[in-house]
Description:
Chain A is mostly beta strands. Chain A has one helix at residues 98-101; strands at residues 4-7, 10-13, 19-25, 31-38, 42-49, 56-57, 64-68, 74-78, 87-94, 104-105, 109-113. Chain A is built from 1 helix and 11 strands. In chain A, a hairpin with a 5-residue loop joins strand 7 (64-68) and strand 8 (74-78). Chain A is globular and about 40 Å long. The model of chain A has no long low-confidence stretch (mean pLDDT 93). Chain B is globular. Chain B has strands spanning 3-6, 11-14, 19-21, 23-26, 32-38, 44-50, 56-59, 62-65, 75-77, 86-93, 102-103, 107-112. Chain B starts with a strand and ends with a strand. In chain B, strands 2, 5, 6, 10, 11 and 12 form a 6-stranded mixed β-sheet that branches. A 4-stranded antiparallel β-sheet of chain B has the order 3-9-8-7, with no helix packed on it. A two-stranded antiparallel sheet of chain B has the order 1-4. Chain B has 113 residues and is mostly beta strands.
Amino acid sequence: NAGVTQTPKFQVLKTGQSMTLQCAQDMNHNSMYWYRQDPGMGLRLIYYSASEGTTDKGEVPNGYNVSRLNKREFSLRLESAAPSQTSVYFCASSTGRAANYGYTFGSGTRLTVV
Amino acid sequence: GNSVTQMEGPVTLSEEAFLTINCTYTATGYPSLFWYVQYPGEGLQLLLKATKADDKGSNKGFEATYRKETTSFHLEKGSVQVSDSAVYFCALSGNSGYSTLTFGKGTMLLVSP
């Protein structure tokens, strides 16, 4: 019973490098989300996908792109990493009505950009 | 827009002490309210929720009551354990249309033996 799986768990990038964070869920959830967590800032929404085939910007989308590959998978791409993108990234999923059920979170990807 | 304000931490308690973590919110309409817990090195886990005014959410000895008149959802536990040491996040979701979760900044709880 995996839930939400994120890869990799840790990554170090040099400024200007690109990478893709992977997320997959096995709960048949419609909606998926990417958040970043920074000290003193809580969790801030980067992008979300309300359903397969749709994506929307959240609070802090600049410097990121996303792809909803299918119902299970939602990836986050950094095209040209910057030190300001050093953070812990969390993927989450929900049945679509967050108000009723909340989210299920992955265990996170800790990214350092040097 | 929606927002959540939590008391700043860390909150430091001795084992078996009473815990209160304050949470207030700003939202239009009648949001649903949540508490999440994050243990060191892990993702967030749903602790409890309340979907309408005066509802009480409870789980693992933790409780929170949805108070619309004071726009609050304070987390309480009568007797904390060392294993409760974690970061606690208050969050809300609107109930009209499609709404995402808005989180507070989190409150770290440290419980000593």
